[in-house]
Known about the structure:
The chain is of the alpha/beta class. Helices cover 31% and strands 24% of the residues. It is built from 13 helices and 22 strands. The protein has helices at residues 15-26, 42-46, 48-66, 82-101, 185-196, 216-229, 322-338, 367-372, 386-390, 418-430, 435-438, 449-463, 468-476, and strands spanning 2-11, 31-34, 112-113, 115-121, 124-129, 133-143, 147-149, 162-163, 177-181, 200-204, 231-233, 237-243, 248-253, 259-264, 266-269, 273-275, 309-311, 351-354, 359-364, 376-381, 397-402, 408-415. Helix 3 packs antiparallel against helix 4 (82-101) and helix 3 (48-66) packs across helix 5 (185-196). It is globular, with a radius of gyration of 24 Å. Bound molecules: flavin-adenine dinucleotide. Residues 11-17, 34-37, 39, 41-43, 47-48, 51, 116-117, 144-146, 165, 186, 276, 279-280, 313-315, 320-323, 325 line the site of flavin-adenine dinucleotide (FAD).
Amino acid sequence: MKTRTCDVAIIGAGSAGLSARSTALAAGAKVLLIDHGPVGTTCARVGCMPSKLLLAAAHAAHSVQNAHRFGVGVLGGIEVDGAAVMARVRRERDRFVATVLKTTEFLGEDEMLRGSARFDRPMQLIVDCKDDRIHVEARTIIIATGSSSRIVKPLENVPQRVLTNETIFELQTLPRSLAVLGAGPLGLELAQGMARLGVKVVLFDQADKLGGLRDPATLEAARKIFGEALDLRLKTEILSAVETDSGVQLHWRDANGVEHRQTFEYVLAAAGRTPNLAKLGLEKSGLTLDEHGVPRFDPATLQCGDNAVFISGDADANRSVLHEASSEGRIAGANAASYPKVESSPRMTLLAITFSDPNIAAVGMSYSQAQAANTLIGEASYDDQGRAKVFLQNTGLIRIYGDKNGLLLGAEMIGPAVEHSAHLLAWCVQQKLKASEVLRFPFYHPTFEEGLRTALRDLCKKVGSLHRSEHDVIVLGPAS
Ligand SMILES: Cc1cc2nc3c(=O)[nH]c(=O)nc-3n(C[C@H](O)[C@H](O)[C@H](O)COP(=O)(O)OP(=O)(O)OC[C@H]3O[C@@H](n4cnc5c(N)ncnc54)[C@H](O)[C@@H]3O)c2cc1C
């Protein structure tokens, strides 16, 4: 068996692994990247980008369907060409993937092994390549193996009819009907996208949750908004799935205990993601694992215990979004290269966005943390907001959490284009600004961001720090 030695071995050439590689290389380390493929990153290949391409088509269809509400007629009605929609998704997706592949396609065997890695013993890996089995001895190892869709038990009987994010974008045309299991951010985005393109969609979740929201008020707003727009079945239990000639028959029990059966062409598994750790031989790694089998690690250094092993991206099941995967890759790459010198890095303020319409976003401290810390809540509804009314998008709610001095700590929001307000607020939370300080920044009129200003003013009122001039704007200003 051949043996390779290196300073830093990185398992996984996804967003976390690639960013770890460039950071470790820049620090002068000899780096070996290992990936069994398909390469191209989850984000570009089967995640962020193809899902947003599908949503872009869906929102275009929705705009046309709603044009009559502005007095704009569409002659001949709307027609969705499913094959053309899916072809564009793949064509543009392939362009994003091609850009990523440029970073690895010319790497020789001394820089990248194309095979599956697992621990043989602490600090030693076995990599099963196509024609070879290679031992890798590394000074430090970074685990950046990503995550995969969780397939709930009843779906194990119907593999031919189960779609995941790995397969849904390969459909040659849109399905006639789709059951989406899991109403978290990924399930909600794809359910709404498919429904707006004319697919008969039912969105299920065993909990009463939607879009990752945790604040009861935003959650209630979301249930109302999406309950009107989608066939939404929360608090349901999927009892069985049986393959039929035309698809898959799902049998479920609803929130009232009533049982139902319905046949769908496909079922999309969107009920959570599991870190790709099961095949890594972690039992031989010498690492301490938590109750879910994830190595225990320090989020500030990404080091696993006192070992020369680091973990980053979706593999650590913490902050599973793209910008965090890249950031964790940088932290892990820098520490792996400088090991045994390991430095803590301040982490970014949490930011999570669901690109549904309306958008959903969470910033910083969660609702339960806010409750535990006795925070005050500034609130604003979009129901009567100027810009939102202009565009017939006047629905949603912002809730901002602040301490007794108005220091911004977190927020949840659902509303038109709140992806932008969520960014602004995340930056302010990270800068440790108070609501009253943010109100000194310009807010253009009429924008959706004026909804953020209204919630900030409400927080200031509760804190008792709203200035006289701000009161005047509230009284005199237009609906904002
Ligand atoms: C449908 C969908 C939509 C999403 N939308 C968004 C979004 O809009 N915004 C956002 O911020 N995030 C989004 N995400 C999340 C985001 O895509 C992930 O957080 C991010 O891609 C994770 O990157 P990673 O490097 O950890 O994993 P990956 O990119 O999956 O990389 C892991 C790599 O490890 C390799 N590997 C695994 N095991 C082994 C092994 N044993 N040996 C060798 N190689 C191995 C794999 O082949 C893979 O290349 C979305 C995810 C999905 C699924």
